[in-house]
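Lecture notes, unit on binding sites. The following record was shown on slide 14. It pairs a sequence with zinc ion.
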Amino acid sequence: MEVREQEWAGAQAFAALLAGSGALRPGHTILQGGLHSGGWIEKGAIIRDPLRLDEVARVQAEQIGRVWPQATLLVGLPECGAVLSAFVARHLGLPVAFVHSSGVPGWHRMHVPERAERAVIVDDLIGTGRGVRVAADFLIREGHAVLGVSAWISRAEPGALKVLTLMPPPYPTWKAEGCPDCSAGYAPRYTGIRE
Ligand SMILES: [Zn+2]
């Protein structure tokens, strides 16, 4: 189940920050993996600025604290997800651990939890959702409860994982054969994009 809170003040704050940071890239886009879109988000515009990143992290922490007050651990996926999860955790007073989701999944040795935790996976932009699914499966195999995933925006079908986002995707995502820009004969403006 996916929870979206468009009316929530945090969603409006995030949307304003996204636009104000210059992260929005409108235009016919081919994403890495082959899906087409009406644009993409350059998350670097936020992540490279600690003040902006902390503002987003504060909003994300508020949402996590409200929906999952029982969380005992935040989990980030290297690299950007690890940085973000640490910023979010500061506002919640929770520990963090990092899971490698490419190759064989495993903990970063910095923190290998020793007891069963109630984990929330923290991410910025979810594309296909493969990384968070790999991390969630790993956490469950390790004996932890996965409350869900907190992300800024998700393009993926939520599937079995509960995904909490700050706002709906600003650009639609299409399979190549269903892309209206391609049907209208417009050349792509951006190609090979991995948000
Ligand atoms: Zn297209």
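Take-home: The chain has one domain: 2-193.
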